[in-house]
Amino acid sequence: MSKEITPETGITQKQIDAWKAEHGKVAALKVGGKIGYVKKPTRQTLSYASQAGAKDPLAFNEIILKQCWLGGDEEIMTDTDLFMSVSPQISGLINIQEAELVFL
Hints:
Elements lengths: L3 E3 L4 E2 H11 L2 E6 L2 E6 L3 H13 L1 H12 E4 L2 H4 L1 H11 L14
Antiparallel strand pairs: 1-2, 3-4, 4-5
């Protein structure tokens, strides 16, 4: 495996490993030959994005993407077509597990 993962962005496997050590899971968003790396959102980020998203649905995805962005082709955040293409994938950063409420 090459040390240089994406020559256009200069992101190496060493950098990805460092992000994983600092943030836990790291995901790659790939669209239109571009790639961006993101971490999972914090509860505070989700709260802020949810408040903004109540008034502007696109704001939720935009805030999550900006706050979770680690590196890569920033055009994903600035180009409307690329942003809209990755928007449906952003919810995948939030791992919602099934919970159970049991009265005792």
